[in-house]
Design a protein that fits this description.
Two copies of one chain form a homodimer. Chain A has 200 residues and is mainly alpha-helical. Chain A folds into two domains: 60 residues, Homeodomain-like (Arc Repressor Mutant, subunit A), CATH 1.10.10; 130 residues. Chain A is built from nine helices and no strands. In chain A, helix 1 crosses helix 2 and helix 8 runs antiparallel to helix 9. Chain A is globular, with a radius of gyration of 20 Å. The structure holds a DNA duplex (30 and 30 nucleotides).
Chain lengths: 200, 200
Amino acid sequence: MIEAVQTERPTQEQRTDAMRARLLEATLDLIAEEGWAQTSTQKICKRAGVSRGAQTHHFPTKDSLLIAAVREIVARYQRDLDTVADDKNGDDWRLEQVFDFLWDACFEGNLLNCWMQVMVAARTDKALQPAVRETDSTALAAMRALGDKCEPRTGSRKTCAADLVELTVYLLRGMVVQSGVHPDQEERHRLFELWKKLAL
Amino acid sequence: MIEAVQTERPTQEQRTDAMRARLLEATLDLIAEEGWAQTSTQKICKRAGVSRGAQTHHFPTKDSLLIAAVREIVARYQRDLDTVADDKNGDDWRLEQVFDFLWDACFEGNLLNCWMQVMVAARTDKALQPAVRETDSTALAAMRALGDKCEPRTGSRKTCAADLVELTVYLLRGMVVQSGVHPDQEERHRLFELWKKLAL
DNA sequence: GCCATAACATACAGAACAGTCTGTTTGTAA
DNA sequence: TTACAAACAGACTGTTCTGTATGTTATGGC
């Protein structure tokens, strides 16, 4: 006797999760590829292969969908961060390793590009701003915590490591915006190495 | 005998200049206040008190207007830069003064906020990208030149001043985006002072 | 003064947009 | 199985958007 395959008839919760995931995925892809201004609910539905009725059922307004997308971006970034933190479990970080991780996470994939779109848009979009401020704060705190976990700094270079991490974050955010217009990544890497020499 | 007032009947060139100036002014205001995505030609015309016919006469497409606005942003920034440079004429800059000037120019007015909107939008707007890349390059070169004009650096701190200026620019760009969402300017200033201590 | 042309104004066309509505299918608990 | 609610689909509405086409006024060379 053949056992009925569970997935043949997905439960409602599974359907909801899958649908929301497809919509969020399409939203992030669109923000990355076409930019915030060109990201409409219609395009999102088309890209996700979802009817507009389904979209409005799960996200009744465009804002609610965008806010969910904002949280998804930071959730993914946090996941990357946790993964690396787990690998390092036990032994201390060196601050330089944190800097290099931030560099890598900044320029691989489109997460940071998406995030800059969101941050810039949030300045003039008051509906979006609270969610962006909140998620950005937690992400920033997580990155500062990475600095605190480093070996204590000695001698004349006893600047707070978390502050150095935060400076690095702002620097990299400026650079990732630059990278959208200027292709010369070599030059940026040279400058980042200079920054590391100054800070470490 | 009364001399005819020149301005009674403006020449065509004057009319064109005035109209273009009004449109660009309204465009920059809108980008600053409502953001790039919400900046439409209709709103621009309404704000400038200009008919849509006049706008399409001087800027036949939306792109042409936006590109002109892009150039205007950098032109204004350059003007600020020249003004300060003229005041300083003769005596050398100290690098710290350059840093402080960049900080002030970053957070007074909305020029830098506008510029970040433009840079972020240009990544996915191929029509905009060449103009943005070009104007940004010249502005960046002008700021690097400011670093070169400083007194030569001595001792162990003989890092290229222009590189330090460019790093500062990226850092400040990251910070100005942050300021659109997080209000705490004191904290940012504290971090900037830390950066100065490391770099100078 | 005259006429070509630039400067401006208004109306319209076609597309895209977000949101609402009604109807259909599917899961689930009684 | 039946009744109900959630999940999904598609059509429709009113608005806003950019670009264009047509008409009117002002300027400047002759």
